[in-house]
Amino acid sequence: MAPPTTRAEKARRTRQRMLDAAARLFTERGWAGTTVEGIARAAEVGVQTVYFTFGSKRAVLKELLDTAVAGDLDPVATLDRPWAREVLGTPDPAAQLALQAAGARAVLERAAPVLEVVHAAAAADRELAELWQLNRRQRHTVQLRFAEALVTKAGGTLRDGHNAASAADVALAVLGPETYGLLVTGRGWTPARWEHWAADALVRQLLPG
């Protein structure tokens, strides 16, 4: 019998293989065109392995989204990750906004295709609609915490009377997957160009002068 650590590592690799297969199928075929059977076949595992590991096709997509946003399988909240701590820790407001844009780019380069699948399927699937709204609320929570820090660093005054709540709304729009998808996926911008534009837009919208 294999040692427990070996079994755990084998299970982790199998789980990742199934997620990788699901990512390819969901982005190529969409929600309706992807089946558990197809995921199992692409990952070279039994159908029951997919069901035993995740429970349902929706659960596969949810975990795929979570891992795409995080970049790994570790259960660490966004605000506890190093890039977010760097955003909060930098003393300069403009530097903070540049780091927010860089962090959003890193997340969206991984997660934008999966978010697009969830968003497209949300109109016809109540549970996926709830997943999309949950993701939006989570993104807003992160942006609100960043905006509260920004207000403090800017001496309590943002441009055009913005407070933390409205600054979070601006960041949610500028750094959201909808805007990223429109410019990068739809209009062919490079992620680097999008990041530069997003950082500049946030500075112009939120910082005095």
From TrEMBL:
It holds the Pfam family TetR_N. InterPro entries: Homeodomain-like_sf (IPR009057), HTH-type_TetR-like_transc_reg (IPR050109), HTH_TetR (IPR001647). Residues 35-54 bind DNA. Coiled coil: none annotated. Residues 12-72 form the HTH tetR-type domain. It comes from the Bacteria. The keyword DNA-binding applies. Keywords: DNA-binding. The keyword Cell membrane does not apply. PANTHER family: HTH-TYPE TRANSCRIPTIONAL REGULATOR PKSA, HTH-TYPE TRANSCRIPTIONAL REGULATOR RUTR. This is TetR/AcrR family transcriptional regulator. It comes from Streptomyces viridiviolaceus.
